[in-house]
User: Fold this.
Amino acid sequence: MDADKNFLVGVFDDEELVINGVRKVRESGVKIHEVFSPFPVHGLDEELGYKRTRLPIAAFMFGMLGTALALIMQMWMLGVDWPMIIGGKNFISLPPFIPVTFELTVLLASLGMVGTFLIVSGLKPYAWPRQFDLRSTEDKHIMAIDLALNKGKSKEEIASILKTAGASEVNEKNFD
Amino acid sequence: MAHQVVIAEEHYEFKAETRKNLFILLIVGVGLFVLGVILAVTVDSHHEEGQGGHTSLNTNGLVASAQQHATAAEEHANESHGVEKAPWIKRIITSLWMNNVFFAGLGIIGLFFVAIQYAAQAGWSVGVKRVALAMGTWIPIAGILMLALWVFTNHDIFHWTHDYLYGDKLDNGAPNPDYDAIITKKGPFFFWPLEGGTFPIFFIFRMVLFFGVWYWFFIMIRKNMMAEDLEPTTSFWHKNVVLSTVFLIFFGISSSIAAWDWVMSIDTHWFSTMFGWYVFASWWVSGLAVITLIVVYLKGAGYLKIVNSNHLHDLGKFMFAFSIFWTYIWFSQFLLIYYAHIPEETIYFFERMKTSPYSWIFYLNLILNFVLPFLLLMTRDAKRQMSMLKLVCPIIIVGHWFDFFNMVTPGVMRQNGGLGFMEIGIAFIFIAVFLLVVLTNLAKLPLFGKNDPMLQESLHHHI
Assistant:
């Protein structure tokens, strides 16, 4: 069995059930691939044991890059390449540079953050998401379990764990 | 599926030990103040000849001449109209006024915080609201203090109160050498409906009106909160939503005018359209820091179990955001004046950036109020940890105290101003008395409304 191919899919009827289900499934030693919900469920990330995103660090780095680029650009343009006297100020004076610096900081931080997010999540043109169960866009919470990552347990064992954890039905889903 | 969490009512007990500590702070403040006065008096008597007020500024261009003109005009006025008070007395007066404006702001921000929670129908803030409400009890004290200070010291603080500035002819028909056309034009803003230079009835009316209306809203909102404790109904909450909305409209106008009256009119010739916002931003972020600090203190003392790191995160975000807001306002005011380079406008910054006792405060102000809060509160963890908040809140409060110091003092004291034991002592006295009043009143009500319709939402708050 290859990874990312064969899944067991548990269907849960409401968010309370899926939160408790996640806890029970993880306690019984089964690794969860992902949970899909039609709306944000508070506390689900913690139960799934997800690590905090490091996206803010990328945003900070891109922001600093924006600050540096903006300052270097303006200093070079107005101080070196084509010095101009504006309002009797020095060629390189900080206060008038601040608005542009601010804008470029925000622009690069936000664009950089979006770009980083797209790359990290593998989102690109013609990247189609896998649908484990279409009802996850409607009223069901879907828990996907990668069978290749849970080789210690049989399919039937996992299915019964899902059932006792509160799943209303358990289906098999295979991607080719 | 919504599960009710049952939570017991909490009462803050203002322990004798806390009170004792605050009294010690008060005594230390008085001690520093007395020490400062003794030092200032001895220094004054040594340098009596040096007090003529020569601007020891390396100046060039228009700014310098505008500065010297203003100073010269004022000195001339002082010479021809009675003896000037000794600089150390003026320092005390200035410091009292500055501290009173700052702490009045903290009190009114307490009420403002409560009002925006109601107007926004916010759910997270149930555990924090009464702490902010307790700060509102300072409003009447600040009002009385401000009125009294104005009555006794108006000529020392406000240049526009001198009657000789108004009227281009003297009684005998000769031209008035001290006539100030600009201030005469601004006269009605203070003296309407009377003549300029008489009694500033409009100014005093506004001061009384603002404090009166603020206090009335405070009493009404507090009354509804107390009634809600006795009767579990949502009607009091809805009444407070309406009251808060009306208050916010009034506050939007009155806070700006208060800033012009109490702070900007000190530099009578100068004006800035950003000033109302600027003073409000400074009050608001320091008020938020005080609220957060009291909440953190209460949590450290074992109270307010309903406030967890999610609520602290919200307070931290508030401080982070409004530190940046303050900087935005500060910079907007600065950049326009810097770029336009009009002497009568740049003199304001000239006095603060290039004059000896204020220059370092001017730059320190930006470090304490922007750089440090911005970097220290940037991460999520920093906003959620009490230890970091304990560090950042005092930085913000001290930073904005300096901000007010630099708004008020240069306009009154010119180059004779100073920051010594006297000023620090007065600040300590204000802190001690403010906290005594606020904590006494915090102990009178339960720490949160057990019948607040938003209580369950606050308990489930999760970000």
In short: The longest helix of chain B spans residues 87-119. Confidence is low (pLDDT under 50) at residues 49-69 of chain B. The CA atoms of residues 351 and 414 of chain B lie 8 Å apart.
